[in-house]
Amino acid sequence: MQRVSRTSIKGLLSQLQAKGLETTSIGLSRCRSSFNQHNDQSEKRRYGKVTTVLLSLTGGITYYLYKDDIKNNISSFINVHAFKIQNSPNGREAGARRAELPTYTMQQVSEHDNLINGIWVSYKEGVYNITDFVRKHPGGQSKIMMAAGGSIDPFWMIFANHQTDEILVLLESMRIGNLRSEDVYKHKDEDIYDPYALEPVRNQMLHINGKKPFCAEPPPPMLVKNFITPKEVFYVRNHLPVPYIDEENYELELAAEEKTMKTFNIEDIKKYPQHTITSAIMCGGNRRSEMGAEKPLKGLSWNVGAIGNASWTGAKLSDVLRDLGVKEEDYNHIQFEGMDIDPSGVPYGASIPISKALDPRADVLLAYKMNGEDIPLDHGYPLRVIVPGVVGARNVKWVNRIILSKNESPSQFQQNDYKGFSPSINWDNVDFKTAPAIQEMPVTSAICCPQKDEKITVAKDGTIPVKGYAWSGGGKKIIRVDVTADQGETWHIAELVAQDPDAKEGRHYAWTLWSLNLPVDKMKKSVEIWVKAVDSQYNTQPESFKNIWNLRGFLCNAYHKVKVNLG
Amino acid sequence: MQRVSRTSIKGLLSQLQAKGLETTSIGLSRCRSSFNQHNDQSEKRRYGKVTTVLLSLTGGITYYLYKDDIKNNISSFINVHAFKIQNSPNGREAGARRAELPTYTMQQVSEHDNLINGIWVSYKEGVYNITDFVRKHPGGQSKIMMAAGGSIDPFWMIFANHQTDEILVLLESMRIGNLRSEDVYKHKDEDIYDPYALEPVRNQMLHINGKKPFCAEPPPPMLVKNFITPKEVFYVRNHLPVPYIDEENYELELAAEEKTMKTFNIEDIKKYPQHTITSAIMCGGNRRSEMGAEKPLKGLSWNVGAIGNASWTGAKLSDVLRDLGVKEEDYNHIQFEGMDIDPSGVPYGASIPISKALDPRADVLLAYKMNGEDIPLDHGYPLRVIVPGVVGARNVKWVNRIILSKNESPSQFQQNDYKGFSPSINWDNVDFKTAPAIQEMPVTSAICCPQKDEKITVAKDGTIPVKGYAWSGGGKKIIRVDVTADQGETWHIAELVAQDPDAKEGRHYAWTLWSLNLPVDKMKKSVEIWVKAVDSQYNTQPESFKNIWNLRGFLCNAYHKVKVNLG
Predict the structure, then answer these.
(1) What angle is formed at CA A283 by the lines to CA A281 and CA A285, rounded to 5 degrees?
(2) Partner of B22 at 20 to 30 A CA spacing, among A305, B242, B319, B374?
(3) B136 and B95 within one domain
C-alpha cells in the first residue's frame, strides 16, 4: 500500500507539464527559494491572507501557482475528495451569521494583523478578535499568526484537529462580528482538495489520537509483544499531511546556510557505509494523558504507546558530512526539513547540535530502511533522519533538505513547541525563548500489562504478572526497573527480558522490555502498581506529575501508576 | 606545605639504598608484581595474617621487606609518630580479656579463614566469629576478608575510621573467646608507624567527616561563594593515607593487561597538547546525611559539600592513547591505579569504559594543574585522572599506573563499593555483581544558603534570599532550577548566576550556581524550602529519598529540603 505512486512537488509539476498542461515556471528550486525568504522574513511578513493563501494539494504549491485548467486536471489526475468541514454538534453554530453583530469587510479584517491594531481572523461568516488568545495558542504563537488578518478556513483544512467542539466554542467566544458576504472564504469542490486524501492505509488496531494530521498509537499489550516493533504497530505522529513522494526524482539537498553544497539521490546515500542500529523513537508527548489528569493540558492525549523500537539502516550523517569536509567550528546546528509542508509553504523542520551530527559515536543516520525493509510511508519513506536517543520530533521524516547553520531550525516545532517548562509557567506568562528545545529524552518506563482497571487473577504464589517497557535517551542503558504494589513500601526488581545485545557502551538506543510476577496483598480488592526505571547515569524518574507538569505536556516521565482489580 | 619532600615506595627504597642501608632486592617492579598476584588470586589467598601482615609505612612495603636496622633507620629517616589506638569511651573495653570465655591460639584463628570453617579474626586480646557479618561489611566483603583468620589490628591502623564506639561495640557482640597471650598482636613504637603522620595541613574551616582516611567538606555557604572552588575549600575524600610522593622519580606506567607499553614522567605528559576544562567533582556519597535521615545508613555522613568545581589542566587521555595506537575494539575498560596503597599492598583503583577514554569529546584528562597551579597533595599531586561528569571515585588521584583491559578494575572500590541498588536491597541480600559501577552521576542540586534551622528575616517584598548549586553528570547542562516554599504548590525559577561560558555543547562539566529571592508566606513561623534542577536531557530529581534509598547511601539526589525559621 505504501508504495502507491506518489509525487513530490517537483514530480507533480513535471508530470503535469508532460501532459501539456500550462504551469508557471516555478519549480522546486523557486518554491524552495520562496520558503527561505518566508523563513527569513517570518517576523516581518504576513501570511495566510485569503487572497494568497496556499490551498495545498501537495502542501507546498501556492494557490497562485494554479491556473484553472491545472486545477481541474489535478482534480482528475489524482483521486481526491472534496474537503468537508464537519463540526461536532455543539460547535456547529461557529461561524454562522449572527444578526446582532456588526459587519466587517475583509479589508477591515486584514488591517488587524498585528498586536498594535489587534489581531482579527475570519472563520466562515464570523469575525473574531483573537488578540488575547494568540500567545496562548497551544500550537504556538507564530503558527496562529500565519492567519492574522485573514481567514483561518484554509489553515484548518490542514490542521484539521481544530474541528472540535471545544475549539469551535472557544473561537466563538472571541466573536466580534460578521464578515461581508462577498468576502467569505468559499469552499468549492473544484478548488478545495483534501490534502489527507491519499494517506496510507493504517492498521485498524491503532488507537487514533488525531486523524488530520494522523496520530495514533498501538494498544499497550500489543506494544510489548515484540522487542522490535513491527511497522504496523509502530506509533504514527505526523505533524502535517503525508507528502507525495516521487521516488524517481527524489533529491536530498545539503546546504551550508543558504548555499547548496551538494544534492544526493537515494543511491548516493546508499553508497556510504551502511550502519544498522536498534533505536526506540518516542514522541515528546508520550504519556501526556497522565500529566493531563494532574491538571488539564491541550494537545494529543497520548497513552503509553507513542513509542516504538525498530532497527534502522542507513548512512551515518557524520560520514556524509566528513566527506564534504564540514568543520564543527563553522556551525552550531544542523537543520532538517521534511517534504511535509504546511499551508503557507513552510516544511516541517527541526535541528540538532552540529556536534551530535558530526560525532560518529552519536550514530545519527540518514536511514532508508526500517526493520530491514524500505521505510513505510508513514515513517518517512524514502529517507528519514534517525537521531537515536533524541525526541521523535528531531527524527525528521521525508527529509529532503539538510542545512548547516549557526542557528537552530526556525521551524515552529523547534522554536515554539517541543520544549519543557516549570510547572509555574502557563499560557499567560510563557516565553518559549527561555527553554531549550527538547533533544535527548529523560528516563521513563511504563506498565503495558495489565492495563488500568483490568481485573487480574492472583496466582497461587500471591503474584500477578506485570510487563512493560523502559527507555532513556542519550544512549543511556536501562540498568534496573523497580515495581511496587504498596506505594513504595516494598520495591520488587523486574527482570529485564529484552535489551539490545549489540549496543555499544554509552550507545544504548533501544528500549528495554521488562517483566515480573509482582507480589500483591490478596486481601485487597485492588492495587495500584507503580513502576520506575533507573538508567546507566543512575537517573531515575520523578514520582509525581504535579512537580513536572508543563503547559505543553511534554516529558511525561513520572512513575507510571496503574490501578487494577484483583480477582 | 604540600611540597614537603615525600617519597614513593621506589623513591624511599632508593634513598635508603643510597644511605647504604641493607634492603631486600625487591623494588617497585617486584612490589607491583606481587600486587598483581594479589589481585589475581584474591579468591584463593589469605591476607593479613599477623605473621605476614603489612605494617605499612609507605602503605605498600610488606613487613618482611624490613630488616630491623632498616626499620630503625626509617623511623629516624622520616619524622613519624607512633600510632595510638584511641577508643571512644563505650567501646574501650573491646578486645580486653574476658575471663568467662575460652582461649584460642592464633593457629586456631587462622584455620577459620573461610565460609566453611567460619571466619574468625582477633582484635587485641579478643577472638571474634564474624562469619555472618562478612557480607554485611559496609566496606565490602573482599575488604574484610583480607583479615580473615588473622588479626584486624594492622588493618584498623589504615582504616582508622573503625575506631568508633559503634563499631567496637558491634565487634564485641561477635566475641567468642580470648587470644593466647603470646599471639596477641603487639604494637611497639619502633615497628608501628602512623601512615597518616605526614598528611598535608588542611583548612580548619573544613568539616571533618573522617580523619583517617581524611574526608572533609566545606560549610555550605562557603561552597557557593566562588564559581571556581579555591583549593583550600575543595572537599577531600581520601580512601587511604595520602601517599608519599617523590617528584623526581615519579613515573606513570601504561600497560596493556599485564604488559607495560610505556612509562612516562611528568614532562612526557606535559608534551601533549594542553587542555583546560572546568569540571565539578562530586563524591558518590554527597548528601548521604539526608538519605540516612530517611533510613539509617553506614558510611560518612556527608552534608551537601562533597562537591567542588575547579579548572583542570592536563593532557587528554585520548591523545596519549591514540599516540600509542590503542584500538577501542581490543579492550573494554581502562583501569587507573593510585599510589595510595592499603595494608595488603593493593592500590586504590578504579576504571572507566575504554570508549570514554578514547573519545576526545569525553575530555578525560591526565591533569597536572588545578586552578592553574600544581595540584595540591590532597587532590592528587603530581597527576590525577579527571573524568568529567563522572563520580569522584573514578577521578583517580596520585595515578601511577594505567591498564588497558578487557575487565573493569578489580579494585574493591570498583567492584563492591560505588554502586547503586533498589531500596529493597539490604546487607542480607545484596549481590554487588548485579549493579553496574557508578560512572556518570545523575542530576542534583542543593540549597547552601540559608542553612537548616537558620533564622531568616523576610524582606519587605516578602522574599528570602536563597542560593545553591546544581550539577548533572555526563556533560549535561543545567537548564533550570525550580524552588518552592509551599511543597510544590508554586514553583519559582531561580536565576542561574554562574555557568561555564566555555563549555561546548554536551560537555558541560562545571556546576551551576543559582540564586533567587524566594517569596514566602510571612505569616508562617517557618517554611521548608525545596529545590530541584533540570538538566539538558530534561532529567530531573526524584522527590523523596524513600524511593531511591540504597544500602551504601550513594546517588542522594532527591529534592534538597531545608526548613528555616522566619523572623
Answers:
(1) 155
(2) B242
(3) yes
Of all residues in chain A, the one with the smallest CA distance to B390 is A537
* Residues 348 through 407 of chain A touching chain B, CB cutoff 8 Å: 353-356, 359, 361
Q: Which three cell numbers stand for residue B57?
A: 609505612
CA separation for the pair A114, A134 (Å, rounded)? 10
Q: A127 and A41, same structural domain?
A: no
**Count of CB atoms within 10 A of residue A100's CB?**
6
DSSP of A143-166, one letter per residue?
A: HHHTTTTSBSHHHHHHSGGG-SHH
With beta carbons under 8 A apart, name residues in chain B contacting A536.
436, 439-440
Take residue B560 and report the three cell numbers written for it: 534538597
β pairing state of A463-471 and B118-123: unpaired
Task: Dump pLDDT digits (tens) for A185-237.
Answer: 876 554 456 788 778 989 999 999 999 899 999 999 999 999 999 999 999 99
User: Contact at 8 Å (CB) between A404 and A387?
Assistant: no
Positive or negative, the CA dihedral B181, B185, B186, B187 is: negative
Q: Structural domain tally of chain A? A: 3
Do B449 and B530 lie in one domain? The reply is: yes
Of A364, A354, A509, whose CA–CA distance to A441 is shortest?
A509
pLDDT, tens digit, 9 for 90 and up, residues A494-550? 999 999 999 999 999 999 999 999 999 989 999 999 999 999 999 999 999 999 999
Give the catalytic positions of A in this structure.
137, 162, 237, 283, 418
A450 with A561, same domain?
yes
Q: Which of B183, B209, B231 is the last residue of a domain?
A: B183
B339, B398 contact by CB (below 8 A): yes
Is B423 touching A (CB cutoff 8 A)? Answer: yes
Amino acid at A326: V
Q: Is residue A26 part of a domain?
A: yes
Q: Closest Cα of chain B to A448: distance in Å?
A: 22
Tell me, yes or no, whether A561 and A472 share the same domain. Answer: yes
Q: Which of B166, B183, B200 is the last residue of a domain?
A: B183
Please report whether residue A549 resides in a domain: yes
Contact of B170 with B184, CB cutoff 8 Å? no
Domain that holds residue A491: 444-566
pLDDT digits (tens, 9 = 90+) for B288-304: 999 999 999 988 899 99
Whole-Å CA distances, B30 to B16, B27, B219: 17, 6, 44
In DSSP terms, A180 is beta-bridged to none
Whether B107 is in a domain gets the answer yes
Nearest-by-Cβ selection for B493 from A424, A492, A493: A424
Which CATH number is A159's domain given?
Answer: 3.10.120.10
Closest to B448 in 3D by CA, of B377, B529, B340, B538: B529
- In the sheet that holds B492-493, the strands lie side by side as B455-456, B560-566, B526-535, B478-484, B492-493
Q: Which residues, at least 6 apart from A557, have a Cβ–Cβ distance to it below 8 Å?
A: A287, A441, A442, A443, A444, A541, A542, A548
Cα radius of gyration rounded to whole Å, chain B: 25
Residues of chain B contacting A408 with CB distance shorter than 8 Å:
none
Residues of B in contact with A473 (CB under 8 A): 537
pTM (two decimals): 0.79
What per-residue confidence (pLDDT) applies to B90?
61
Compute the residue count for chain A: 567
CATH code at position B478: 2.60.40.650
B441 to chain A, closest Cα gap in Å: 6
Cα gap A429→A135, rounded to integer Å: 9
ipTM reported for the complex surpasses 0.85: no
- Answer yes or no: do A15 and A110 share one domain: no
Q: By three-state DSSP, how is residue B29 classified?
A: helix
B114 at A interface, C-beta within 8 A = no
The residue written with cell numbers 537521531 in the block is A387
Question: How close A507 gets to chain B, by Cα (Å)?
Answer: 10
H/E stretch holding A270 reads helix A266-270
